[in-house]
TrEMBL record:
SMART domains the record matches: HTH_LUXR, REC
Positions where 4-aspartylphosphate occurs in the chain: 55
UniProt key word Cytoplasm: no
Organism field: Pseudonocardia xinjiangensis
Entry protein name: Response regulator transcription factor
Domain Response regulatory, chain residue ranges per copy: 4-121
Every HTH luxR-type domain range: 146-211
Amino acid sequence: MTISVFLLDDHEIVRRGIAQLLESEDDIQVVGEAGTGAQAMARMPALRPDVAILDVRLPDSDGVTVCRDIRSILTPPPACLMLTSYSDDEALFGAIMAGASGYLLKQVTGIDLVGAVRIVAGGGSLLDPKATAVVLERLRTGTEPTDPRYASLSPQERRILGLIADGLTNRQIGAEMFLAEKTVKNYVSSVLHKLGFARRTEAAVYAADLRRTDGS
């Protein structure tokens, strides 16, 4: 059986490299690709891939949100393999909650990526059992803030909110998260809108209060 794969990454050169790697395998076919979350959500429903390789960081969204949204509208849902250039506990938590089947760093070797595609396509998981246990413990103890406004934020937006609370400017946040300053500005605007705040300082105070409440 041929495994159909969809690629989501905002860097064309990365998509080309992964596609070339996967297409060299007899049992894997890349059926589509996208550079933004919006493009992925528009294209995947018609293609119905077996596996979706999703970059965590995107210019208009994040891979975790795409994973959650596409799995909610497709039956059967694709196995989502999150691919990222950095290790982040909050993004990992979001990936597990969104139903992702795997979470890999971009430093992964080609042979391991091919193997990962086959594993998740067959119903397997590449999520670290220890990381999954931490997520389950957070759910059991209720340490995740329950404010519906906070719950509406994507993992990327939550990370940016935390950096706002740390006092970082948009430029500093961009350097920290490898995002363009304009992209950070758009994220900040989205965070303020979802939280119902007009000023950045209000969001910083809100985030600080959340930290005191959940003990982090």
